[in-house]
Write a structure and sequence with these properties.
The complex is a heterodimer of chains A (234) and B (630). Chain A has 234 residues and is α/β, with parallel strands linked by helices. Chain A is built from 7 helices and 10 strands. In chain A, the strands form 2 sheets. A 6-stranded mixed sheet of chain A has the order 6-7-8-3-9-10. In chain A, a hairpin with a 2-residue loop joins strand 9 and strand 10. Helix content of chain B is 37%, strand content 35%. In chain B, 34% of the residues are buried. Classes of the chains: A alpha/beta (234), B alpha+beta (630). At the A-B interface, helix 2 and helix 3 of A face helix 1, helix 11 and helix 14 of B.
Chain lengths: 234, 630
């Protein structure tokens, strides 16, 4: 396969945290290659390194050793400016706690990345996204006026505002009930199929994890199992 | 910056109370600064207006504390010392003098005891030349006029000048040169005639004396005079002035064709000379008073107690009829009857400053009575018990007693508003002021303008070296202004440092507030970075918030200052009027420069205090920021 076909390629990827002089090795030199357009679930218990992996791919953090190539860019060699351009134009991030800006309405939250990117021409795109996630009528509502599921949908729409290549979701359904969680995964599936976005989602939920194309199991910083989903369980 | 505006506004709005308090803090600092600068400009302008409005560059006064005198000159109150009338003529001899005007300022305590009526006696001719800015006001107004049909006073609406200055009148005395070389100085105020028995002859037929009467045409001359007690006069003499300028002092007795002059030299040797009438220019009488001073004039009549000496500069006129047959010439050509006397007897004409007219609801043509309280020294007898003898005894004591008095005037005109102290003053003719307030020959100040102001030091030296001027003081108004401004400047530096401390404190306050809000929003900043905000975006956002706070503080402070300005002005007035002089008009004045300057200053404050918190926010690493917030 060509390099171009990979959204993420990690080789010997290692991440060490320093916490009160104690060394915590979150990732112990893993090898991962994720193709463009793939929907990947990352599974594993707490502390397995799921979030660390997503943060590294999302350019929110820097790895300690090994190489990490995201969309043909070697993250180790990028400067601060190039890193935020990666975050701005190529990567969308969805958090477990939604992290919407409290004082902004649903629409304004979605518009925010577009505004940061100075792409005022694309502002109508935010409205399209709202329609897409089925919250057109909630456009001017503040986050506190939305339900958990709705908030996460808005967060997903916000992550998609600058038409990223990769959508990273860190436990997107962790704070949601089963029904809403299913809805979020349906939406992710749909986005993956229709917009050809590479989706990497970390989750505990086995049932939801197998809605993806591929499930990577992490345990204590190592890849325990990497399985392609051939037949989806319903 | 536009893109962050909404976000910045919303994040400030979320922390309403804190944001408002910070804005308030900045506002107070800005308000202090704006008020101070406003006071500084306003005071300077008001002072310049007051000093510039004086019209003359120099003020000659009797010796005293210069600041006190300046206060008197500018504010019209204070204790007074006097110069005499003749100083004006003496100073006028100096070639450097361009214009000179004598003034007499009389502060009258209002009847109720609060405040003053400040009356200025002015010599209209010279005063108007020195102070052309003093103009009669114009506009629609009401005047009181006498209806010729009924003789009653009626009110009339008039559009035009509000009255005028004092009626022009000839106040310069005529000098009447009599055939016997006597000179009569006075004002010709009327014509008359009298009969005189010229001869008495025995009629041989009737055996009775027949009188031949002749009618003489006369001019009535008003001779202001003053009585001198015989007891205070130690010597009576005369001065004979010859045409060649020599003066002979002694006993002068006019004879038919000659004058006899008896003089004594130091050894007491008497010498007698006669002078023909052609030689003699004029004859004057001279009284020597106990204190050695000499009074020149004409002894008009003599009683057992007094000498009545005529002198044109003095008040309380006597009239004398001078036969035209005796008159050789008149100094002013033909005798011209002046209406001086009429005015003298009538109401004193007064011209009012704008405010004086407004506060008294006075109209042109109206009669004005100023009720005043005057302090007089009175001797009172008191019975006390003598501590030694234990007997009751009477002692005499001098006490100050208030006497209530009323002065009557007729409003001739109202002056244009000038914005200076003049607005509150009352103006009357100098001679009237000297007469009605019993300040004969007295002046409080002489205003002078020089041909060349650069020669001021030489001029001042000359004045001080002329001993005959007495104890005088030359005040340059530029110097006065400088002195007052220096005082104000010192106070200003002090208060300015307080203002700068306030600004410094508010700077720290702003930094603190924004830094706190940055730490509180750590997670939010992390998220913004995660969704694509660059370091610069975060920096600008936080910076903008600070600038908004300071700009709003600037606006708020300026508004406080402008609306509180009147209050500050009242306060300053109350405090400073106790110290003496406060200029008229607005002393706290806000120019656009001050307001714009302080607003820009507030923004600069925002720019400066925002840098550090914004830098801190921008430097946060996104993952740590998000994690720390959890």
């Amino acid at each position: 396969m060509e390099n171009n076909d990979y959204a993420v390629r990690a080789e010997k990827l290692k991440k060490v945290y320093h916490l009160y002089k104690e060394e915590i090795v979150a990732l112990k030199g893993i090898y991962v290659a994720i193709k463009k357009g793939e929907f990947v679930s990352i599974m594993g218990p707490s502390g397995a390194g799921k979030t660390t992996f997503l943060n590294l791919v999302g350019c929110l953090d820097k790895h300690t050793e090994g190489s990490l190539i995201v969309l043909c860019a070697n993250l180790a060699s990028l400067n601060e400016r190039q890193l935020h351009n990666m975050r701005r134009y190529h990567i969308g991030f969805v958090f477990q706690e939604f992290f919407l800006i409290k004082e902004l309405t649903a629409l304004e939250n979605i518009q925010l990345p577009i505004i940061f990117a100075n792409k005022y021409k694309n502002l109508p795109w935010a409205q399209y996204l709202l329609e897409r996630i089925g919250l057109k009528n909630r456009m001017n509502h503040l986050p506190k006026e939305l339900s958990g599921g709705e908030m996460q949908r808005v967060a997903i729409a916000r992550a998609l505002a600058n038409k990223p290549d990769i959508l990273l979701a860190d436990e997107p359904t962790g704070n949601l009930d089963t029904k809403n969680a299913q809805g979020i995964y349906d939406l992710l599936r749909q986005l993956c199929n229709e917009e050809k976005i590479t989706i990497i989602a970390a989750t505990h939920n086995v049932k939801l994890a197998y809605l993806a194309d591929r499930v990577i199991h992490l345990r204590e910083g190592n890849i325990e199992k990497d399985e392609q989903v051939i037949e989806r369980r319903v | 910056m536009r893109k962050y505006l909404n976000l910045a506004y919303k994040s400030l709005y979320r922390r309403k109370i804190r944001s408002f308090l910070t804005i308030g803090g900045v506002g107070v600092a800005v308000a202090v600064l704006v008020s101070l600068l406003g006071f500084n400009t306003g005071y300077r302008k008001a002072l310049e207006r007051d000093v510039g409005g004086m019209g003359y560059q120099l003020l000659v006064t009797a010796k005293g504390c210069p600041y006190e005198l300046a206060t008197v000159a500018l504010a019209g109150v204070g204790s007074l010392r006097y110069l005499t009338d003749d100083t004006v003529a003496k100073i006028k001899e100096d070639p450097e003098v361009a214009e000179i005007t004598p003034t007499l300022m009389v502060p009258l305590i209002k009847e109720e005891g609060t405040g003053f009526y400040t009356i200025w006696g002015i010599d209209l001719d010279t005063y108007a030349r020195l102070r052309p800015m003093m103009k009669i006001a114009k506009g629609k107004h009401k005047e009181k006029v006498i209806d010729p049909a009924t003789g009653n006073e009626v009110e009339k609406e008039v559009d035009g000048p509000m009255g005028g200055w004092f009626k022009p009148r000839e106040v310069k005395p005529d000098e009447i040169y009599l055939k016997n070389s006597r000179v009569v100085k006075g004002l010709i105020v009327g014509e008359g005639e009298y009969e005189k028995v010229t001869s008495r002859e025995l009629n041989p037929v009737t055996g009775e004396f027949e009188e031949t009467k002749k009618t003489f045409k006369t001019v009535k001359v008003m001779l202001p005079s003053r009585l001198y007690k015989k007891s205070e006069v130690t010597g009576v003499g005369g001065i004979l002035t010859l045409r060649d300028g020599t003066q002979i002092r002694g006993d002068i007795s006019p004879l038919d064709d000659t004058f006899k002059a008896v003089t004594r030299d130091a050894q007491g040797t008497e010498q007698q000379n006669t002078y023909s009438k052609d030689q003699v220019l004029r004859v004057e009488d001279e009284l020597t008073l106990q204190d050695g001073s000499k009074v020149l004039g004409v002894i008009m009549n003599e009683t057992n107690e007094y000498y009545n000496v005529g002198d044109i500069e003095l008040a309380y006129p006597n009239t004398e009829e001078v036969s035209l047959d005796l008159v050789k010439t008149f100094s002013n050509g033909k005798p011209k009857i002046t209406d001086y006397y009429k005015h003298f007897k009538g109401e004193t004409e007064i011209v009012l400053g704008w405010e004086a007219a407004q506060t008294g609801f006075l109209q042109v043509g109206q009669k004005l009575t100023l009720k005043v309280k005057e302090m007089t020294k009175q001797k009172v007898k008191e019975k006390v018990i003598d501590p030694v003898s234990g007997k009751e005894k009477e002692i005499e004591r001098e006490i100050e007693m208030p006497v209530f008095n009323a002065y009557k005037f007729k409003v001739m005109g109202i002056l244009e508003r000038s914005g200076s102290k003049d607005d509150g003053f009352y103006f009357i003719q100098l001679e009237e002021a000297q007469r009605i307030f019993r300040r004969y020959k007295m002046l409080t100040g002489i205003g002078i303008s020089l041909h060349d102001l650069a020669k001021l030091p030489m001029f001042t030296d000359r004045i001080y070296n002329r001993k005959e001027l007495g104890e005088t003081q030359v005040i340059s108004l530029a110097e006065v202004k400088g002195t007052i401004l220096n005082l104000v400047q010192t106070a200003k530096i002090l208060v300015m440092s307080v203002a700068f401390i306030a600004i410094f404190v508010s700077l720290i306050g702003v930094i603190n507030t924004i830094l706190m809000s940055v730490f509180e929003r750590t997670q939010e900043i992390g998220i913004m970075k995660a969704i694509g905000a660059s370091n610069m975006d975060i920096f600008k956002l936080i910076w903008l918030e600070t600038i908004i706070i300071c700009a709003l503080g600037g606006i708020f402070g300026t508004l406080i200052a402008i609306f509180g300005g009147k209050l500050i002005e009242k306060l300053i007035r109350a405090v400073m009027s106790k110290a003496g002089y406060v200029p008229a008009g607005e002393i706290v004045q806000f120019t656009p420069q001050i307001i714009i300057g302080c607003f820009l200053g507030a923004i600069i404050l925002g720019i400066l205090s925002g840098i550090w918190p914004a830098y801190r926010a921008a430097k946060m690493r996104p993952i740590e920021a998000i994690r720390r917030g959890e």
